[in-house]
Amino acid sequence: MKKYLYIIIGLIALSPFSVFAVDCTSFTYSDWGICTVDTQTRTVLTSEPLNCTGGSPVVSQSCTPIPTTINEYTGPNLDEWLLMNGVFLFLLSFIAWGIIFKPGTDLLR
Question: What is the count of structural domains for the chain?
């Protein structure tokens, strides 16, 4: 009779509904999900020891979302363009002036 009592107690201890529950100490996780609203999540795939409950699995973490919109035009604005090309345009205007109004001609006649 004692032998059967030990077997029954052993089966109860190994049962998932055991009153002798043990906290989980080791976890295997899925990959982290996509970062949305500053949070990433994952799920617990397995836990150890066998038939454990509870523990402290890390299933969420804070994150910084990757921007989904990209500016189509990233070149200089008008002010930057004039600053970069202003000297060139100034010299070009003198060359054009010299071609249109040849030196030595009298413009008032």
Answer: 1
